[in-house]
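Sample intake sheet
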Amino acid sequence: MRNSVDLINPTKRRLNLLALSCVLLCVYQNTLAGELISDYEDWLSKKSKEDLTLEKSKFDRGLLKLECSERTNFEFTNKNRRQVKASCGDEWRRFLKVPKPIAELVTTKSVTETKETKKLAFAFNKALEKGYLLNSKDFDLVEGHRFVPSNAISKPENYKDLYLQRDVAKGDLLLKTDLKEAIYVFVAQKALPAGIQIDQSNFTLKQMTHGAPSDHLKKLSGLEYMTTNKRLDVGDVLRERDLRKAKLVRRNEPVNLVYKAESFSIDAKGVALADGYFGSRIKAKNLESSLIVSGVVVDYGTISIN
C-alpha cells in the first residue's frame, strides 16, 4: 500500500507543477498584452499631447498571444489617422483602429496648416491656341483653395521663345507641360513610296512650335543604308518608326566581289546566294572561278571578301 502512495505523490506533484505553469503562462501573456496596450496609450498620448486611456476590453484577444523581444513600433498608415500599424521588428505586425475622437486629437498641426495654406499658380487671362508664342502678360498669379496639380507653375519663369502646347481657355492653369521651345524636323517635300532610299533631296527642314513627335529624326547623315517602311505624303514628319534597313543585296542578283589585301584589291563578278543588309555576312558565287565565297555586305551590290 505504501509503495502505491509513494508512486501517486510524485505524479500529483508533477500535475500541480503543470497546472501552476499554465497559470503563470496566462498571467505572463496578460502582462505582455497589457504592456503592449500601455505602450500604445503612451504613444497616442504623445501624439495628441493629451492623457488618453484605452479600453483594453475592446482589443482583439489575439493580442494576448503576441510576444515581442524588442520595443514595439507604432506608425499611422493613412492621412486621417484612423489606423495604426504596430510592429515588432520582423516578428509580427498588427493593424489597430483609432477611435475617431482620438484620431482628431492626434492630427498634427502640420497637416492642418497644409490644408489651410493657399495654393499659388498662374492662370491664363484669355483663351489661346496651341502654337502661340507665350509672354508673361498672358497669365496672372492666382491664389486660393482650389485644386492645383503638382505640375502647375507657381513661380515666375523666363518665357522667352516658349510656345503653348495645347488649346487653353481663360482661367486654365499654366502647367509645365504647356511650355516648349520650337524644334526643327525633316518633312517630305513630295510623296514618297515605301522602300525608297533616304536622301537629303527628298526632305526639308521645318520649324514646329507644337505637336512634334518625340521620335522625329534630328539628322539625315548616317542613314544611307536605310529606307522608308511606309508611304510618306507631302509634309509628313520623318520619324524613327518610318525607317527600316535597306536591302543592299538581293538573292540571285549580280554583285561585285571585292578582295582586299594590304597593297592591292581585286574585283570580281558574282551572284548573291541570299539577301543581305549592311554589315551582314552572306555567301555568293564567284562567276569567274565558280567558287562559293563568304563576305560582308558593305554597299549596294557590293560584298567584301576576306
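Comment: The radius of gyration is 40 Å. The chain has three helices and 18 strands.
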